[in-house]
């Protein structure tokens, strides 16, 4: 009893300290996080296979609740008889989604706070830029606000994160699910990268999953693995208890760990000062919006506004080429308070100056030499700007032709650098090559390689000199 009182007194002191510290002023330095590090991190996380799976779950239909006492759990992991230090930490905070402490959750708490705290701090820093937007979207969708922490689980709030299977953006939408929820993905934009559009889609997806399963743990698992897979697992084990299903090997390890990881990151997010993290070093990403009716080159606009191009892309992360798409109306984000200045600038310039290039839609099989000659552009420059390989267009798409009046070699390099990220990479078939050998040579499954090359009807009959897509975004 004395030890329990001491523990409670310690908790009250920590809580009072948090109240004082939380008023600290935040500075404005920016922190970035690269996709390669994310990939390495996720592969490291999957080394937690030896953890015991838990079958604990809470029973509450309340949207807003204090974290329940351990006695309210429907089932208790055998051998757990006392509340741990970590459980005491999170019991001091209110949540509006069910929270369960399991051995896996504890392990992830230790992993994110003790093994990779520098990564967790970067996530907290980046999240501070977008959190007010994400929370507002979830509140408008009448979803529990604590679900915003799912973006930590998915990408660490990284708009440019790409998984090994092609899931993209802050909310890691696959192309098919992205299309299902109305997100465009073409030559000009990938709206899965847009922090507002993708968050609204994620909110609708989560709402649909909760309506189907009537349980947040199952809904979250379905966000990761797909609703069909979770439904089949539930039917197979004759239970709606996610933790009972996760205690088997029916679901992939990633899905079995998905909810514990989310819970751990949510606990950290709502108690980060208590876990020794610093207040975020970033400021919220404030912006104004304007509707434009013609294409605008963000390299040109950034120069006119005397700001960095990277700052414009950070506001408009869905733009693949740094140029707005050719649509009747496009909502462009600009630095906060500079909307009238931009509108005035656009009204005084013509379409050619705003775009800086001539756009030509070319069909697959077109000759690049002929295009260069027709428009009076050097062949090498045309290839460099558009990341073209060889003298034949392999895929129907728009190409950019420089206008001599606005010629800017630095801009050419910037456009080319962006285009290179989305330009398919090809392998030229040589004598003795087989489809399986090509796939293995590039670390791919034959099914994945076939998916990138739907026009190859017979993979057993390859031609020498034939070009096979080995990478596409």
CATH domain fold name of the largest domain: Lysozyme
Global mean pLDDT: 82
**Whole-Å distance between the termini?**
60 Å
CATH architecture descriptor name of the largest domain: Orthogonal Bundle
Question: What's the story with the biggest beta sheet?
Answer: 2 strands, antiparallel
- Count of distinct structural domains: 3
Briefly note the structural class of the backbone: mainly alpha
Beta strand %: 5-15%
Number of helices: 22
Level-1 CATH class name of the largest domain: Mainly Alpha
Q: Could you characterize what this model shows?
A:
It is built from 22 helices and 8 strands. The strands form 4 sheets. The chain has a two-stranded antiparallel sheet. With 473 residues, it is mainly α. The N terminus is likely disordered.
List the defining traits of the structure above.
single chain, 8% strand, Lysozyme, globular, two-stranded antiparallel sheet, Membrane-bound Lytic Murein Transglycosylase D, Chain A
């Amino acid at each position: 009893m004395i030890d329990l009182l001491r523990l409670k007194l310690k908790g009250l002191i920590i809580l009072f300290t948090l109240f004082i510290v939380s008023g600290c002023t935040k500075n404005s330095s920016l922190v970035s996080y690269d996709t390669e590090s994310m990939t390495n991190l996720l592969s490291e996380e999957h080394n937690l296979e030896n953890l015991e799976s838990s079958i604990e779950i809470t029973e509450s239909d309340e949207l807003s609740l204090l974290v329940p006492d351990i006695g309210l759990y429907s089932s208790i992991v055998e051998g757990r008889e006392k509340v741990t230090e970590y459980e005491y930490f999170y019991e001091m905070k209110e949540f509006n989604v069910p929270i369960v402490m399991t051995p896996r959750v504890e392990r992830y708490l230790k992993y994110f706070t003790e093994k990779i705290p520098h990564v967790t701090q970067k996530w907290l820093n980046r999240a501070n830029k977008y959190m007010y937007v994400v929370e507002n979207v979830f509140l408008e969708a009448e979803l529990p606000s604590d679900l915003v922490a799912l973006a930590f689980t998915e990408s660490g709030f990284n708009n440019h994160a790409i998984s090994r299977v092609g899931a993209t953006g802050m909310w890691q939408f696959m192309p098919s699910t992205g299309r299902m929820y109305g997100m465009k993905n073409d030559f000009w934009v990938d709206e899965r990268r847009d922090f507002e559009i993708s968050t609204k889609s994620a909110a609708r997806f989560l709402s649909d999953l909760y309506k189907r399963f009537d349980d947040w743990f199952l809904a979250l698992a379905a966000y990761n693995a797909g609703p069909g897979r979770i439904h089949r697992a539930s039917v197979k084990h004759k239970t709606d208890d996610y933790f009972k299903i996760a205690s088997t090997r029916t679901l992939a390890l990633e899905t079995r760990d998905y909810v514990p990881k989310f819970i751990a990151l949510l606990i950290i997010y709502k108690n980060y000062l208590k876990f020794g993290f610093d207040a975020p070093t970033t400021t919220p990403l404030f912006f104004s919006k304007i509707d434009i009716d013609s294409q605008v080159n963000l390299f040109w606009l950034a120069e006119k506004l005397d700001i960095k191009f990277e700052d414009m892309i950070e506001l408009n992360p869905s733009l693949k080429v740094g140029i707005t798409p050719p649509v009747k109306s496009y909502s462009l984000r600009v630095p906060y308070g500079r909307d009238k200045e931009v509108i005035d600038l656009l009204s005084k310039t013509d379409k050619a100056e705003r775009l800086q290039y001539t756009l030509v839609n070319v069909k697959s099989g077109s000759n690049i030499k002929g295009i260069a000659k027709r428009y009076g552009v050097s062949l090498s420059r045309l290839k460099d700007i558009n990341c073209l390989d060889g003298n034949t267009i392999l895929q129907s798409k728009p190409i950019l032709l420089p206008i001599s009046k606005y010629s800017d070699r630095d801009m050419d390099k910037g456009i080319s650098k962006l285009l290179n990220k989305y330009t398919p990479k090809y392998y030229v078939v040589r004598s003795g090559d087989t489809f399986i050998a090509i796939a293995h040579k590039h670390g791919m499954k034959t099914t994945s390689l076939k998916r990138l090359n739907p026009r190859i009807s017979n993979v057993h009959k390859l031609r020498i000199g034939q070009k096979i897509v080995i990478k596409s975004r």
